[in-house]
Write a structure and sequence with these properties.
Length: about 140
């Protein structure tokens, strides 16, 4: 993670698609990361650090750990993947961004191989605005009525 450039880069070997994925970070995301307990902010976070570390050194929390947290919050009807689905629904129904921008934000591979062959960029700047709108929407939902 590079907070100066407001960018999180996930290396190709960690991605299902085996392609590097660049994630634009919003101010809200950076503040959230900085607020995590025990999280030391450096200009560039080491590659071996996890946002949600396990008690086992060098490992991240498992999917089951996240599921357990949701159950303890009495939110067992939700899943980790459901958060991605919520973003996708919001992006399709509330804002007006091209489908390709939304799919890139989710690190989805374009289904049409011909289209994918020509779409070589990652639309980072357009995704940066999309993520700013998403952060604004999420924080708006947290405000008391």
């Amino acid at each position: 993670m590079n907070f100066e450039e407001k960018l999180w880069i996930i290396s190709a070997h960690r991605m299902k698609s085996a392609r590097e994925h660049r994630i634009p970070l919003t101010e809200e995301a950076i503040k959230l990361l900085q607020s995590l307990p025990g999280y030391k902010i450096q200009e560039d976070i080491r590659k071996d650090m996890y946002i949600f570390p396990s008690k086992q050194k060098g490992k991240s929390l498992s999917n089951m750990s996240m599921t357990t947290v949701l159950r303890r919050m009495n939110k067992g009807q939700y899943t980790q993947h459901g958060f991605r689905s919520s973003f996708r629904d919001w992006a399709a129904e509330v804002v007006h961004y091209p489908r390709e921008v939304i799919e890139h934000a989710l690190a989805h591979k374009l289904a049409d191989e011909v289209e994918a062959a020509y779409q070589r960029g990652d639309l980072l700047e357009k995704r940066r605005q999309l993520m700013a709108d998403w952060a604004s929407y999420c924080y708006q939902q947290l405000k008391p009525n």
